[in-house]
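Standup notes
- HV: blocked on the assembly model, inputs below
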Amino acid sequence: MKQKRRVRVMVAKPGLDGHDRGARIIARAYRDAGFEVVYTGLHQTPEEIVEAAIQEDVDMIGLSSLAGAHKYLFLAVVELLREKAADDIVVCGGGIIPDDDIKRLKESGVKEVFTPGTPLDDIVKWVKHNITPRQD
Amino acid sequence: MNDIVEKVVAGDVRTVARLIRDIDDGMPEVRGILKDLYPHTGKAYVIGITGAPGVGKSTLVDQMVAHLRKRDKTVGVLAVDPTSPFSGGAILGDRVRMQRHSMDQGVFIRSLATRGHFGGLTQSTRSAIDVFDAMGKDYILVETVGVGQDEVDVVRSAHTTVIVVIPGMGDDIQAIKAGILEIGDIFLINKADREGSDKTLSDLRLMIEMDHKKYDRGEWKPPILKIQAVFDKGVAEFIDEIDKHAKYLAETAGGLDFRESKSKVRQELGEMIKARLIEEVIDRLTESGDFDRAVESIINGKIDPYTACENLVLPIVS
Amino acid sequence: MPLTFNAKIFDDIEKGNKKWQENLDKVFGAKPERLTRFSTVSDREINRIYTPADVRDQDFAADIGFPGDYPFTRGVQPSMYRGRFWTMRMFAGLGSAKDTNKRFHLLVKEGQTGLSTAFDMPTLMGYDSDAPKARGECGKCGVAIDTLNDMEDLFEGLPIDKITTSMTINPPASIIWAMYIAMAEKRGIDRKVLGGTIQNDMLKEFIAQKTFMCPPVPSVRIIEDTVEFGTKEVPRWNTISISGYHIREAGSTALQELAFTLADGIAYTEKAIERGLDVDDFAPRFSFFFNSHLDFFEEIAKLRAARRMWAKIMKGRFKAKDPRSWWLRFHTQTAGCTLTAQQPYNNVVRTALQALAAIMGGTQSLHTNSLDEVLAIPTEEAATIALRTQQIIAEESGVANTIDPLGGSYFVEALTDQMEEEAFDIIQKIDDMGGMLSAIEKNFPQQEIADSAYHYQRQIDEKEKTVVGVNKYAVEEEIPVEVLEIDEELESLQIEKTNRVKTERDNQRVAECLEKVGDACSGKQNIMEPLIDAAKANVTLQEVCDVYRKVYGEYRDPGIY
């Protein structure tokens, strides 16, 4: 019986911030949308996240930050993926992130940023639309 | 293809990660790669760890990894979590408890979902074990929730099968003993500081003693250990027991290389044939449309499922 | 004695209600009710109307009574806001200690009556600014404190002998408090006159906020050291602020917030008694911290129920004799999680309503969120509007002129009773598990909250619950809001400052101090005096926390989703 590719995503909490309500809710929503979700838990360094994403062969990393350190942390993840030639893994972010920062993050390679109040279905739809499981 | 095999054998993380995904997704091209990898396997020691949800398997695996690393052994971990029967998705959360090893190049952690395909979990997990083996991991730890037959089969194919329970499961032990307990080589009572651990210990002991005739013949008698994985209490002693079991296998049970054990090869080949047959047959029937047509006919009352099954299968096998 | 109704009157009321409901059913038969199901934000179903029959078992003297009288349903002090308003305490912290000090001076000038400090993530987690794990986080969501030097800059020019200071910090609360005491003593202020609060509530961190360092058991041990020390040495200090706020922010219902918070309070009380302290010596210094969320009446009922329950717990369960032990004094913050990035000016209105609920619920102090808090650290303008919101409620609306104005409302009283009963059921369940520490180990509260959070988010997505500007009345155009930026250079400046302190201090003395801290940790000696000595020797926050981590081990996220 032939298996289809399944979307595999990683939900990660970089940095010291412990506010994981959003990350946990998103993880559940992804599961309910039929994705396989690897959850890293709290307090991860960018290096740990990237290494885990590569070992897990995920299609996307969803990063959550609510304590203002998103610029450093998100961009560090993007940068490390590039260094490891794994930048086919899409990086998304969510949390308390001002508009100007969203612009800067997107210019630097973060594919999408979701701010508080974004309906789960919109996020799931975005993933379904923009993330295709690896084809090769 | 050779390129991939070379990279796996050289221990390239990205290549291994992608290959396991291909195995899991049932990509047909992996068969060739697995054939070429086979000569590079047979060196790793495989430990299966199973038990009900919440008994602390992931925390235990995390501590085992730490101990094995202290002995300079490389480790591959396969953590299997159930797929949601409603959405087909899964949250693979075992990794959370092992993330401290993620920067350690001697450790490779991979989460797998059960996905619920006929026998597929067993096959894909075994193939993933082979890949870790070929990449040179000394130990491979496979963690599953011991509920389905598939998952039991997965840990059963390990060198050492470990059953984890917690105190206060007395009645449950009675209930599951027929299924899981008989495959255990080592039993662990985790969270042993909790009330009822002595009762659990004596229950388990009683059950194991029922097979005393086997032990009299010199067969392996499963030890029972009280541990507290979260505080790393008893884990070192547990690993010593694994060593003893490995020694027992090497000396008495036909050696550590299961590829040289007739019964193991017989069993694995049988299962492989079964899985492959189901896969091929269902694929063919789905592609030709015969499967869907038969379903329709049954629903419309034109045919009974027994006849339909015969009509579908006999032309293929005869 | 029950309210002044007799049985005959209840019969008439129930008959009347039945008739009224039937008539209404006819009306709604033609054109149905607005919703198929009316429920609070926490999804508690609410009746069309409440009557005296809903509170027929209530006894005025025993259940409601007068403010300042047991069981304090109407407030802990007899005078409440007739004497003085609640403390308007705005949480502030950003960038360096000097930046935050400037903000403190501004807030005091604008009429704020108490200080409240927000620390940055590295400080909250027990790391100095130069730790590898702190990269990119210095000063981002609060102030960075590495050494006594930073603490001195933070309170420069502020009258800490007169003004009370609240410090929102948990795993390193003991060392931060030690730095504060050391700073005061260096200024010649006696520790006995210091007033303020350290949050110091680790149980809710394991349950909800996840700022954790050591495992639960040693974490609680350090807390009990501070409780013991405070009781004897710093009698005006609230050594612990038992917090429901974060439990709610993590997605719990109002009921879960109430029950888990009081269960935490029970756990701390039990541990302090185990240590040999007299309940009446420490319980009066326990304070609480609640969330004020969107559902107006449910929030008021929650706060009233909390007061009554704590009084019963302290008097009944712990046999406290001092009435001050029975008091549930609490700070309230409006619900950060209800703010939206969309149409951010709407947040001012949300916050005003939540503040109103907190005040009707009888809070002792209040923080009102700024409209831009969902985007970043508040700007001065936004923080001022938030403070003005409290001042308008206090001084223009008149709601503070009557004590417990909703007491006697059939609805609010019925809801208060209902929440009390259900919360006691949950507490019983936790007791049956062996108390809150065991419940946490079994992931019980964590799982309950995760389920509630997901349920609520789904209700918003299904539009069962409305979020104005998000799932209803959404617009394309966004009003640009000015957002405060934290200077990226701050990190290197702060690291430089800490390094300077480290080179200039007496490192021999530092080593000795740390050894004494370690001895206290592994032995039975109270940790606080060695910590104050260490603070005075310019030991850094992380150096102390590293000792904690070494002696007690590190707690890691069990990853409940």
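- HV (later): unblocked. Chain C has two domains: 7-60, 66-71+84-461. The mean pLDDT of chain C is 93.
- Next: hand off to the docking folks.
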